Amino acid sequence: MGEMGEIPVDFGKNHDATNGSGYEAYPTESDWPPGAHPAYVSPPHDYQPDGGVLAYPTKMPGGVRAAQIVCWLFGGLGVGLSVLAGVTDKWELFGALIWGFFPAFFLAIFACGFTVNGNGVRVVAIVFASFGTLVGLSGMSGGLPPGPLGFGASLAIVILLSQHSAGVWFKRPH
Questions:
Q1: Global confidence as pTM
Q2: Contacts 24+ apart (CB under 8 A), 59-63
Q3: Of 28, 94, 116, 163, which cross-links 85 as Cys (Cβ 3.0–4.6 Å)?
């Protein structure tokens, strides 16, 4: 850059004149005063206006919300396809769709209770989703609906509702 006057560029190094090198590898202290921002608390806890922390969540965890949405989409798809098969007089397909999406119909109903019901609805939803994985596996082997979609959606519901945060959500006081 020559005589134009060079501007020293600091690429992420923190200047610290106390250790002699002029730089420290990682910052050891924050410039924030103590208590300026709250410490991290694990997801099942919620902050209160007075600074306290609840032992149970007041907001639905993301995994439970995702399971709820998958239940609604999976059940809605089953209803839509079944109605379409019935309207077009394809009764064998209608029967296959009713059988294949049977767990999804109930899962969509149970998902409506994820915000207000206790742990029983979670357990029943896991049981119906487990049954849905078996129906999906049999559909994949026989070429019947819902096939891989049913297996994947049901397995996702089982995994999402089996998480610790889901258990804490459904066991909270109502």
A1: 0.69
A2: 60/114, 60/115, 60/169, 61/163, 61/165, 61/166, 61/168, 61/169, 63/160, 63/161, 63/163, 63/165, 63/166
A3: 94
